[in-house]
Amino acid sequence: xxxxxxxxxxxxxxxxxxxxxxxxxxxxxxxxxxxxxxxxxxxxxxxxxxxxxxxxxxxxxxxxxxxxxxxxxxxxxxxxxxxxxxxxxxxxxxxxxxxxxxxxxxxxxxxxxxxxxxxxxxxxxxxxxxxxxxxxxxxxxxxxxxxxxxxxxxxxxxxxxxxxxxxxxxxxxxxxxxxxxxxxxxxxxxxxxxxxxxxxxxxxxxxxxxxxxxxxxxxxxxxxxxxxxxxxxxxxxxxxxxxxxxxxxxxxxxxxxxxxxxxxxxxxxxxxxxxxxxxxxxxxxxxxxxxxxxxxxxxxxxxxxxxxxxxxxxxxxxxxxxxxxxxxxxxxxxxxxxxxxxxxxxxxxx
Length: 350
Hints:
By secondary structure, the protein is mostly helical. It has helices at about 1-5, 10-20, 30-45, 45-55, 65-70, 75-85, 95-105, 110-145, 145-165, 195-205, 225-240, 240-250, 250-275, 285-320, 330-350.
């Protein structure tokens, strides 16, 4: 009975001692404090390294991951006030609370973190934008210079004119580019042969693709020849228009928005840094130097953007007439070509 049901007074006293020794007036929620501690420990960075980076403006020893983590663990306004106003024994605070309190001793601490993170990521983001605009330029050149793509357009035009002999559309000199996507939907009387089959045959006839078959003397549709030559045309277009396929996956509005976002954030950093120039450390000087360099980079990127989009507009007008004036999506031309190559490949392999 005693061993099972009688309370152990010594055990109770130990629990009371533990409770009494537990930190009082915690600033952070215990769970949040624990999670912050885990995040900080995983990055293996000291409190002194963080302090120095934020004061001197040198985040080389921290890196983007650490800076992102610091922003994640930033205290709320209420928690920040409690940490700053805490006058008790610092050792009584949890490790995460001690860390945040030391960071908050630095004026504009988390604005500094945001500025350093922007600087840390800036080079990669500029490289991405520059590469994207170069891809758009290369895609435009590919469309203009691909001999097979031009033969394809000629074949579509000739096939359409043959179909419309004797009508008002029988002597057309151009067609809308999205017609390429409809070729597979126009079927012959057998319900199987499509206009795409005859376009491929037209390319073969014009010697756009070398063939061991004498298609000049045997104009009837041959599925075996179509599959072989259709795949060959698809493969060649994929090679000649590799940047077109990449450009088709881009969004010009997103790219332009990205440039604007970098500009706006840089202006914000410049304004906030001006508020910090009266405080100790080299943060202001370091960031001012970066802002000057970044402004130059962004001016260059905006020039690249304008040039690339002008080329896209020109190539769209060249191949698709007035579609630019109709307000269609700027990179639509690349999407049409990519989707057509996919349709051709699927039809040849089905």
